[in-house]
Every structure is written in structure tokens, then in C-alpha cells.
Amino acid sequence: MYIHEDIEKVLISEDELAAKVGELAEKISADYKDCEVLVVTLLKGGVMFSVDLMRKLTVPVEIDFMNVSSYGSSSKTSGVVKIDKDLDKPIAGKHVLLVEDIIDSGLTLNYVKEILLSREPASLKICTILDKPSRRKTHVDVDYTGFEIPDEFVVGYGLDYAQKHRNLPYVGILKRSVYENE
Question: Pick the catalytic residue: 6, 52, 101, 104?
Fold first, then answer.
């Protein structure tokens, strides 16, 4: 099976993603110009974006990861947040940049944000490549946003459906026929 066959249309091209990542990196580097940043990436979806972003940052960077899930293999959030992998080191006193692939309902991100804030970082900012505000169930303050997108099921650039399509170099709208029989 050729994975591109599951895509209805390309929503954000590879070139558009690269340009936006560069813009975000400039803003983040300026905001953190006098300090080191701990980039906390939410696995698995945030990896591609996070790696591209970190390569363009001009400030010292440490990295760590959390694996948090609320979808399983469904196209809709379950509402239950599960931490499969926590951070490796304490974050107290560190400037933390939480990197996410997409903000949808906001429930998962708010849960993670509260956990991280309870660990007393010097600061905590949130960066996402995609934001879907029409699906928001709770308010989320996002410091850096790449693209605001419509209420479509998207895959690619780290985002998946049932662990597939993460490796697409663009963000595409998944054909309904792929997931409509859930």
C-alpha cells in the first residue's frame, strides 16, 4: 500500500512547514536569548517538528521527552490521559519549552502543563506546529503557534492515524474512508 493514497489533499506543504519552523525558531531564540532551554517533546507526534525546530534554535538546548496519549488508535480523543513515559530528569529551575504536534481539545496539553508546573520550572512555554481551536474543550495558552487549521483529521509530519502516516513530509487531510468505520 502506498501511504499517499490515503490522503484527500495536502493541507500544509513541506516547504510551508520548513518556513514556519524557521519563523518559530527565530521567535523562540529571541525570547530565550539569555538562557538555556529544556525542550520537552510530547511523543510520538511531536518528534519531527521538535527535531526540525531544535536544529534552527540559536540558544543552548537540552532535550527530554514525555509519551502521553489520549487517542489510542481512534480518530477521536478518549478524554483519558495516560503517561507512558515521563521525563528523565527534574525540571525545577529550568526554562521549559513544551513542544506539541497539534492542539485539539486541549485536555491532554492542559494535563501535561499542570504536571510540569507542579515541578517548579523557572518558566514554561508551549509551542505547537498545528492548532485546531474549533475542537477546543478547555482553554489553552499557547506561546508559539505554527498554523491554525480547520476541523479535519490530519496526518503527516509526525501526526498519525493508528500509528501510520507519521513519515509524510507534509500535513494532509486523511480520507474519511480510512477511518469512518470506527
Answer: 104
